[in-house]
Write a structure and sequence with these properties.
This protein is mostly helical. It has two domains: 70 residues, no CATH class; 74 residues. 89% of the residues lie in helices and 0% in strands. The protein contains six helices and no strands. The protein is elongated and about 100 Å long.
Length: 166
């Protein structure tokens, strides 16, 4: 069988020997009364030679077969490359979106913290009104409002466009 494969296919002697060995292993397994495991035996034999060797062995005949049928192996490779690039671009866009979202979430958490500081200052003033507690509540209010206004502007001018661009 090795000689036949070497002479009648595009396989070299080593590749023909590997296929012969895998087929022999599968046939031996089937003849031993375990035909459902013959495919497993076939592919396990290839695993012994290593998947990289199998890939190298299969690529040339597969490309040649695609070309002989459709003439499109180069076109297929270009399409696969374009697909891989698109998938990589989508992954990068998702990563960028997630980064912007994470940064924005941090700013929203800070806004919530400042709101809590303001509410606590108002509660303290209401519980014990004085100039000191009123000044603290007013300062907390000013800080909170300034932060909210800045965040709204940043959201509209920076974050929203980045998220929709991703």
């Amino acid at each position: 069988m090795t000689k036949f494969l070497s002479e009648n296919t595009l396989l070299d002697a080593t590749q023909a020997m590997q296929i012969t060995s895998a087929l022999t292993s599968a046939a031996t397994t089937a003849l031993a009364g375990n035909p459902e495991m013959s495919g497993e035996a076939f592919f396990n034999k290839f695993n012994e030679y290593g998947m990289e060797e199998l890939k190298a062995m299969a690529d040339k005949p597969v490309n040649k077969a695609i070309d002989s049928v459709t003439g499109a192996s180069e076109k297929t490779q270009k399409a696969a490359t374009a697909l891989n690039e698109a998938m990589s671009g989508a992954a990068n866009a998702a990563e960028g979106f997630n980064g912007v979202r994470e940064e924005l979430n941090g700013k929203i958490q800070e806004q919530e913290r400042l709101k809590t500081v303001y509410n606590n200052a108002v509660d303290a003033h209401n519980a014990n009104p004085s100039d000191t507690t009123a000044n603290a509540a007013n300062a907390a209010s000013a800080t909170y409002n300034e932060y909210v206004n800045t965040l709204n502007k940043d959201y509209n001018d920076t974050y929203k466009p980045q998220m929709y661009a991703s």
